[in-house]
Design goal:
heterodimer; A: 111 residues; mainly beta; five-stranded antiparallel beta sheet; 57% strand; B: 112 residues; seven-stranded mixed beta sheet; four-stranded antiparallel beta sheet; 11 strands; globular
Chain lengths: 111, 112
Amino acid sequence: QKEVEQNSGPLSVPEGAIASLNCTYSDRGSQSFFWYRQYSGKSPELIMSIYSNGDKEDGRFTAQLNKASQYVSLLIRDSQPSDSATYLCAVNMEYGNKLVFGAGTILRVKS
Amino acid sequence: EAQVTQNPRYLITVTGKKLTVTCSQNMNHEYMSWYRQDPGLGLRQIYYSMNVEVTDKGDVPEGYKVSRKEKRNFPLILESPSPNQTSLYFCASSFGTSNEQFFGPGTRLTVL
């Protein structure tokens, strides 16, 4: 089992729809979770961080964390073509004190 | 401006010719890390450093060396590059692994 797993996609949604991106992780002791967005040829940039169970909202973005199910998700409301990118889930593993990234989900928002 | 810088941004070299990719941050971060990114494999950690003179292996350290003599700098050294080290490399820094990591612009390395 990979430490952090994401569906590679591509996930295609129409403009204005809700995009739902999912991530599962293997280390039950993990405490810190991050979503990064990466445009083609660019470096990753942080969108959201979440540390406790439940939802965290920031503008059009909502991160959801369920530690019991070892699952973290990112919802993007009112998706725009400019949201088309690869979204990386990152989890701070308790063992080894390291940040592990998933392989990323490609999102395509069609206008 | 708070930033992580990497040099060079692009490099084409030949097998066996030693090279160094520099990384510098101006945010007084303790934690620095090097990643490589390959299609379908995501970001894989090469080496990381918790502070000056403290470095440790990540998931794919073979063929790489690092040093952390100063807090702001964390160079990546390839003593004898091979074609399987052709990749996109990112340096990142943060106050710790539970904090946001700031990424440099990336270095695209091709080893012929």
